[in-house]
Each structure stands twice: as structure tokens, then as C-alpha cells.
Design a protein that fits this description.
Length: 230
């Protein structure tokens, strides 16, 4: 069967990765969570006590590469779930990157052009043979502008906060619903207003608002689109 590239962009916590994983499982495609890559880079700066506020200045002064060159981002398969998990310099950091501390800092890290270029290159390399589902903010616009299927996802912010709260509680990560909602709203603003690869709907992407859809309904909607393409 013809292999395609599926690009899923959208707002924070609207079910992009849940949907992307389900599609990848259904089609036996590679799944890549590009947000996890930005989170892993953020974790590197936090763990090494490198102030995130100074990254742009370091980039302007031409010295940011001293840090960036020390960061290696890769994925490894979790044999229990069958899903790929992100590694920072060879260490699986899938859990550490979901903390509120990382969530609060990642938007600023993702505004830095040099960091984006490094991660986009890795993403394009992973997807060069197609058969990939990738979710993020710039996948259909920058990473894979020729993707055969592009989705642009959104959902009501209260619903998204509730979903994130349930997900974090399930993982044993403590955060209040209000704190999560504030963080999501702030990231919505930051992601859509930054100058470098902002979150925007590609002209050829299909809008999916899943506020009132469950996971199965969203999956069926997309599988129907895919069957028309392949
Ligand atoms: O998908 P996520 O919420 O885990 O992503 C974390 C942050 O990373 C998000 O607030 C913006 C940034 N990001 C990005 O700028 N570009 C991507 N392709 C993916 C994520």
C-alpha cells in the first residue's frame, strides 16, 4: 500500500498525540512527537542551569551552538506500549519532560531559530521515507509542507485543561486544573504569536475540532480521509 506522510498540528493538549499514536498503530507507521523533542531540549537547559531567558542573546552573539552541539535527541521504542519515547543524550526522559516546570519553559525555548533548525532537520530525516505520523505546531507548514494529509486540531480550552489534568494525574504528576488551564492558554498565545514558525493553519490542512468527539470518533474521521488518499 502507498505510504504517505501525515502532519498533525494544533493547540496544546487537544489530543494530537493520542490521535497520532492511534493512526500510526492502525497503519503501522512511525509516530513522532515533535513537542517531546522541544521539551527534551528544554530539560537539558534546566538540568544544566542554563538560563532560558539568555538563549536568544547567546544565539545573537553566535555562541548558542556551544550548548546545542552537546544536545543529542533520539527516540527509542517502548516495548510495552509500542510507542517511541524521547531520549536526551541517550537517556529516556519521557516522564521528566511532562512536568509543569518544563511546560512553563518550553515555549520560550521553541522561539529560538537555531534550536528549531536543529530539530526540524532531525524530524525531516526521520520522515524522509514517508510512512510517518508527526504531531507538533509547524509540521504541515515547515517540516513536511508536501505531506499528503495535514490536520489542524483544536478543542475548547476548558476541555483541553480537563484532559491534560487527567493525563498528568494518571502519570502521577501533580498540578492543579487552574494552573494547567493558565499554562495551556499562555502556550496557545506564545505558539501563535512567535515570529519563528508560529502555529498557523496551512491552507491545505483539514480542521478537526474534537471538543465533542471521543478518541474513536476522531480516529474514524481521519481514517476515512486516509482511505480516500491511499
Ligand atoms: O506538543 P507539546 O505541547 O508537548 O509541545 C510543547 C511545546 O513545544 C509547545 O508549547 C510549542 C513547542 N513546539 C513547537 O514549537 N513546534 C513543534 N513542532 C512542536 C512543539
Amino acid at each position: 500500500m502507498k505510504q504517505i506522510t501525515i502532519a498533525i498540528d494544533g493547540y496544546s493538549s487537544c489530543g494530537k498525540s493520542t490521535l497520532a499514536k492511534a493512526i500510526a498503530k492502525e497503519l503501522n507507521y512511525i509516530y513522532v512527537d515533535s513537542g517531546a523533542m522541544y521539551r527534551a531540549v528544554t530539560l537539558y537547559f534546566l538540568e544544566n542551569h542554563i538560563p532560558i531567558i539568555d538563549l536568544q542573546r547567546a544565539a545573537d552573539e553566535g555562541v548558542l551552538h556551544h550548548y546545542i552541539d552537546k544536545i543529542n535527541i533520539s527516540f527509542e521504542n517502548n516495548p510495552t506500549t509500542g510507542v517511541s519515547e524521547v531520549c536526551l543524550n541517550g537517556r529516556n526522559v519521557e516522564k521528566e519532560i511532562r512536568t509543569m516546570k518544563v511546560s512553563e519553559s518550553v515555549s520560550m525555548v521553541s522561539t529560538v531559530k537555531e534550536i528549531r533548525s536543529k530539530l526540524v532537520k532531525i524530524q525531516q530525516e526521520i520522515g524522509k521515507n514517508k510512512g510517518v505520523v508527526m504531531d507538533g505546531r509547524d509540521i504541515g507548514t515547515v517540516v513536511f509542507p508536501d505531506a499528503e494529509l495535514k490536520l489542524y486540531m483544536t478543542a475548547d480550552v476548558n476541555e483541553r485543561a480537563k484532559r491534560r489534568f487527567a493525563e498528568l494525574s494518571h502519570k502521577g504528576i501533580t498540578a492543579s486544573l487552574e494552573e494547567i488551564k493558565i499554562n495551556i492558554s499562555q502556550r496557545d498565545y506564545d505558539d501563535t504569536h512567535r515570529s519563528e514558525s508560529p502555529l498557523i493553519k496551512a491552507d491545505d490542512s483539514i480542521l478537526l475540532d474534537n471538543t465533542n468527539l471521543n478518541e474513536q470518533q476522531s480516529l474514524e474521521f481521519v481514517l476515512d480521509l486516509i482511505s480516500k488518499i491511499i
